[in-house]
Write a structure and sequence with these properties.
Order of helices and strands: HHHHHHHHHHHHEEHEEEEEHH
Low-confidence stretches: 256-263
Mean pLDDT: 93
Oligomer: single chain
Radius of gyration: 24 Å
Strand order of the largest sheet: 4-1-6-5
Distance between the termini: 61 Å
Shape: elongated
Largest sheet: 4 strands, mixed
Number of helices: 15
Length: 368
């Protein structure tokens, strides 16, 4: 991208930058690296419109990395609830502790140090260094991939090392300037608002004259479409309720020393509290599935009810889940429960179980 194109890009951004809670009114100002980190992590896999309110609430409760590092996981999950991909929240808490312990609460200022922290990859590290410290560091996200592909007729995606390096080289070229922070953020904004995946607004683009795909009227062909693979998954969710109104919860710990059957871990919710669930066939016979007997003694069941089903998507998995409500004859204290499970009060279940998957299950129970 030549200097004239970059000048047009900066001018466009300074006039058209959206007002966002993590963006200062002075676009040339240094950012709080903590705020950059939180906003960019929230924006992974999530739309800007959704993130705005989450970011505001988060920063009111956890205004600094030192305050965040003292929080417990349950509270952090509550403030993350609805954003999905809860491993991001777990990594945020781990990284906050490391920054406070190892760096005295100050963000490291090298890419190698940042990328060594849990949950911080090449893109987020570049954003922190560029926006928070005004270093000449590149970023590369889906918006920039789309822009570089269209401008240069790159008919491949950054799916392998060589192709990825080509895209990073374009990103480094843009960042090789004292205005790198403006260039990086302007390109993200351009991809979000103008150079959109569908129906790009080319007539409003400051880079239109340099875009080869526009010149050839082929913007719809670049970048090439990503092949989406969806996997069907059918399962059963158990809402096991004790006589005194408590719900059995699985602490889905990933412990490599324990065999999978021993802790009944499920790949969808590692290191989270979740309702017991397992893969099951469609149109399974009525009654208690044999897999459920890991969690509950059939002789202690007072009532078993099939309450309905719900649909849910996790990454590439398209899920359909049946919900079984099991009421027990005994109180929670009197019940023997398996490894990695615990009882929580039914009226506090949604506070402890933060995933929408669990909330959908509990909502079906509440409707009965």
């Amino acid at each position: 991208m030549n200097s004239e194109s970059l000048k047009k890009l900066r001018s466009w951004f300074l006039k058209n930058a959206a007002s966002l809670p993590w963006r200062p009114s002075d676009l040339n100002a240094l950012r709080d690296p903590y705020a950059v980190w939180i906003s960019e992590t929230m924006l992974q896999q999530t739309q800007v419109a959704t993130v705005k309110d989450y970011f505001i609430r988060w920063m009111k409760r956890f205004p600094s990395v030192k305050i965040l590092a003292k929080a417990d996981e349950a509270e952090v999950f509550n403030f993350w609830q609805g954003l999905g991909y809860y491993s991001r929240a777990q990594n945020i808490l781990k990284t906050a502790a490391i920054i406070c312990d190892r760096y005295e609460g100050q963000f490291p200022q090298t890419r190698a140090e940042l990328e060594a922290l849990p949950g911080i990859g090449a893109y987020t590290a570049g954003a922190i260094l560029s926006l928070g410290f005004h270093q000449r560091e590149a970023i590369l996200d889906g918006n920039l991939v789309r822009i570089f592909s269209r401008m240069n007729l790159l008919n491949f995606l950054p799916t392998d090392k060589d192709f990825l390096e080509i895209y990073w080289n374009y990103a480094r070229e843009v960042a090789n300037s004292s205005k790198a922070h403006l260039h990086n953020e302007a390109l993200m904004e351009l991809g979000r608002t103008i150079c959109k995946a569908k129906n790009p607004l080319c007539e409003n683009c400051p880079l239109a004259s340099a875009c080869l795909a526009r010149q050839k009227k082929q913007t719809s062909l670049f970048p090439p479409k990503k092949v989406h693979i969806q996997k069907e998954w059918h399962g059963t969710v158990l809402v096991i309720e004790s006589k005194d109104g408590k719900i059995l919860v699985l602490e889905n710990k990933s412990d490599e020393k324990s065999p999978k059957k021993a802790n009944h871990a499920n790949p969808f919710f590692k290191n989270q509290k979740t309702l017991p669930h397992f893969e099951s066939p469609k149109n399974a016979p009525a009654g208690l599935p044999i897999e459920a007997e890991y969690f509950v003694d059939a002789d202690q069941i007072d009532e078993l009810k099939a309450c309905g089903s719900f649909r849910h998507n996790i990454t590439v998995h398209k899920m359909e889940c049946e919900v079984l409500h099991i009421r027990l004859k005994k109180t929670a204290k009197s019940c023997k429960i398996p490894q990695n499970t615990l009882w929580i009060p039914k009226n506090e279940a949604k506070k402890h179980l933060v995933s929408n998957f669990c909330h959908k299950s509990l909502n079906i129970i509440e409707l009965q």
